[in-house]
Amino acid sequence: MSAFPVSSPEQGGAPLLSVRALRKTYSLPRGQTLKAVDGVSLDVLPGEVLGLVGESGCGKSTLGRCLLRLTDVSSGQITFEGQDITHLGERALRPLRQRMQMVFQDSYASLNPRRRIGDLLAEPLRVHPGPDGRKRPAAAITARLHELMDLVSLPVTALDRYPHEFSGGQRQRINIARALALSPRLVVADEPVSALDVSVQAQIVNLFADLQAQLGLTYVFVAHDLAVVRQISTRVAVMYLGAVVELGETDDVLHHPAHPYTAALTQAVPRPVVGASRHPPLRGDIPSPVARPSGCRFHTRCPMVQDRCRVEDPALHTVRPGHQVACHFPLAAD
Amino acid sequence: MTADCSSASGTGVPVPAPARPPGPWRKAGRTLLRNRSAMAALGVLVCMTIACLLAPLYAHDVARVDPFTSNVAGSIMLDGHEVDIMQPNDNPLHLGLSPIGPTGHAAYLLGADSQGRDVAARLLYGGRNSLLISACAAVLCLLLAATAGIAAGFFGGLMDTVLSRLMDIMWAVPVYLFAISLSIVTVSQGLKLGPFVIEADNLLIPIVIIALVYVPYAARPIRGRVLALRQAEFVTAARCLGVPRWRIVLFDILPNVMTTLVVLGPLLMALALLAESALSFLSIGVQAPAASWGTIIQDGEGLIYTRPMVAVAPGLAIVIVVLALNILGDGLRDALDVRDAARRSS
């Protein structure tokens, strides 16, 4: 990806988080390298919800972790609030952590089973100084814990309990409360509902939406479920094999996909519409990120593949205002 | 009830307080209390310990014997008769002398050893040393192993490489050979560490040696557990929250490793007891005239055909304690659900 796309022009202002040509590779035995994130550039604007979708293994979770510098990046640049955080050390990142948080997929694994909820939620408040720059007094922490419980609609008595005493949905509420403890601006949610029952998923997604409206949060919402993304995102980035192949307003991307891969993804969602236009379904599995295809990374599965696709890697380019796609032969909006 | 929650010190170990739901340690305690074999084993261990602690009382006030001085020419009163402690052998030629066998009285209950000392009293005194050394060695070993295991597992990299190779080297030497060679050197010369001089008969010598040789056996499972925990999502979550590394080790890693340590404790003590007995049997552990179960077995070795009780009694004591420790360890493992915890957090 050589082009550095500029985000949707409608919402001006400096991006909260911006990523340029980000790469994350892992060295494997026998000299192979796994390109988990392969040259991603995007901006996250204040107040928006950027949905990150793709099949499992496409690098969306790795990208999410890179954004918060939970893993080291191989190359590229990450800027948060105008500050380059690409190479900051753990200690230098610590004050920034107050303003960027994460909600993890596995609600149980992300809570230490041996600590009470109150203890877990108080941890960020204990390690970060209060607004006056001093250590928070115990009373302030208690007050904040009660506020947080209220925010995620859990009873205050939950603070005395252990993670295993809660259901998946309740635990995810606890995780959200912990992420919000320090009043962050940016929350990266890494498939926060995909491990939950469908009935609970909607509740949690609604909670995310309510909190965003209430607190003016910015989300990067990683998901593989288009229905979830459609519900919460204002913009969508579709990832395939470590790269963003399509980026734009949610409705525009999902209703008028320009990339054959996005089209196939939307086709995979059952829609109660008679005679909905059908693109040929995808064949085969996502190729290994160790040996990525030459040319366009999608050409091995693309129903509209042509000779040019096999040799030339398409760059992300604008097809309509605020809508970018990495395809030599983008689909026309019907 | 909720107010004190946030003011808790954040140790992760629940502070007992009424009306709060029980923490994992309390639950484990309750499970253990319901485990009959583990409680029986614990009872045996407690009884043994109390009996050994009462050794001076028994020797001075019940048996009225001195278990540390040779008493070859002495005699005792049994049912109004004076009986020599060393008695002529009952072989046809009446050659040589044998110590008195079990008397069935308070004095010399289990008979005398080849130096005419009360075996029962020595058994209790020996138990003090054996239990003290094995318990201290187990605790010291766990401390060293936990430090090494957590450092290697959590910090990884060069630290892990150096520590793990060191453990491998120690592991490559058979544990008894290792302990014997260390003991021979220290027991023959004592130990001079700058201003500190440790005499050869100091119990610290067997304690430290036994603790050292078993460090790799305990450190390896601890390191494995920490490696799994380091990848656990709640550790990533803590890093994401900006929690300093020392806090993560103390409040996220350690409470989850504690279960492993608690389960390893009794098993290590059993191993340490066996090692201590072996070293003392070889005269390179507890030094005469002090006793340990190992030294008493050595005393009884020459009497095994005529007065088997001298060697059998401490042998039985070792068997009982080791068995009880193993049963207790199993009970702890079931109560703490270590495997399950490992599965859930990995």
UniProtKB/TrEMBL annotation, chain A:
<dbReference type="InterPro" id="IPR013563">
    <property type="entry name" value="Oligopep_ABC_C"/>
</dbReference>
<comment type="similarity">
    <text>Belongs to the ABC transporter superfamily.</text>
</comment>
<keyword id="KW-0547">Nucleotide-binding</keyword>
<dbReference type="GO" id="GO:0005886">
    <property type="term" value="C:plasma membrane"/>
</dbReference>
<dbReference type="GO" id="GO:0005524">
    <property type="term" value="F:ATP binding"/>
</dbReference>
<dbReference type="Pfam" id="PF08352">
    <property type="entry name" value="oligo_HPY"/>
</dbReference>
<protein>
    <submittedName>
        <fullName>ABC transporter ATP-binding protein</fullName>
    </submittedName>
</protein>
<dbReference type="GO" id="GO:0055085">
    <property type="term" value="P:transmembrane transport"/>
</dbReference>
<dbReference type="InterPro" id="IPR017871">
    <property type="entry name" value="ABC_transporter-like_CS"/>
</dbReference>
<feature type="domain" description="ABC transporter">
    <location>
        <begin position="17"/>
        <end position="266"/>
    </location>
</feature>
<dbReference type="InterPro" id="IPR050319">
    <property type="entry name" value="ABC_transp_ATP-bind"/>
</dbReference>
<dbReference type="GO" id="GO:0016887">
    <property type="term" value="F:ATP hydrolysis activity"/>
</dbReference>
<dbReference type="Pfam" id="PF00005">
    <property type="entry name" value="ABC_tran"/>
</dbReference>
<keyword id="KW-0813">Transport</keyword>
<keyword id="KW-0067">ATP-binding</keyword>
<dbReference type="GO" id="GO:0015833">
    <property type="term" value="P:peptide transport"/>
</dbReference>
<dbReference type="InterPro" id="IPR003439">
    <property type="entry name" value="ABC_transporter-like_ATP-bd"/>
</dbReference>
<dbReference type="InterPro" id="IPR003593">
    <property type="entry name" value="AAA+_ATPase"/>
</dbReference>
<dbReference type="InterPro" id="IPR027417">
    <property type="entry name" value="P-loop_NTPase"/>
</dbReference>
From TrEMBL, chain B:
<keyword id="KW-1003">Cell membrane</keyword>
<dbReference type="InterPro" id="IPR025966">
    <property type="entry name" value="OppC_N"/>
</dbReference>
<feature type="transmembrane region" description="Helical">
    <location>
        <begin position="309"/>
        <end position="329"/>
    </location>
</feature>
<keyword id="KW-1133">Transmembrane helix</keyword>
<dbReference type="GO" id="GO:0055085">
    <property type="term" value="P:transmembrane transport"/>
</dbReference>
<dbReference type="InterPro" id="IPR050366">
    <property type="entry name" value="BP-dependent_transpt_permease"/>
</dbReference>
<feature type="transmembrane region" description="Helical">
    <location>
        <begin position="37"/>
        <end position="59"/>
    </location>
</feature>
<feature type="transmembrane region" description="Helical">
    <location>
        <begin position="131"/>
        <end position="157"/>
    </location>
</feature>
<dbReference type="Pfam" id="PF00528">
    <property type="entry name" value="BPD_transp_1"/>
</dbReference>
<feature type="region of interest" description="Disordered">
    <location>
        <begin position="1"/>
        <end position="27"/>
    </location>
</feature>
<protein>
    <submittedName>
        <fullName>Peptide ABC transporter permease</fullName>
    </submittedName>
</protein>
<dbReference type="GO" id="GO:0005886">
    <property type="term" value="C:plasma membrane"/>
</dbReference>
<keyword id="KW-0812">Transmembrane</keyword>
<feature type="domain" description="ABC transmembrane type-1">
    <location>
        <begin position="127"/>
        <end position="329"/>
    </location>
</feature>
<dbReference type="InterPro" id="IPR000515">
    <property type="entry name" value="MetI-like"/>
</dbReference>
<dbReference type="InterPro" id="IPR035906">
    <property type="entry name" value="MetI-like_sf"/>
</dbReference>
<feature type="transmembrane region" description="Helical">
    <location>
        <begin position="203"/>
        <end position="219"/>
    </location>
</feature>
<keyword id="KW-0472">Membrane</keyword>
<comment type="similarity">
    <text>Belongs to the binding-protein-dependent transport system permease family.</text>
</comment>
<feature type="compositionally biased region" description="Polar residues">
    <location>
        <begin position="1"/>
        <end position="10"/>
    </location>
</feature>
<dbReference type="Pfam" id="PF12911">
    <property type="entry name" value="OppC_N"/>
</dbReference>
<feature type="transmembrane region" description="Helical">
    <location>
        <begin position="169"/>
        <end position="191"/>
    </location>
</feature>
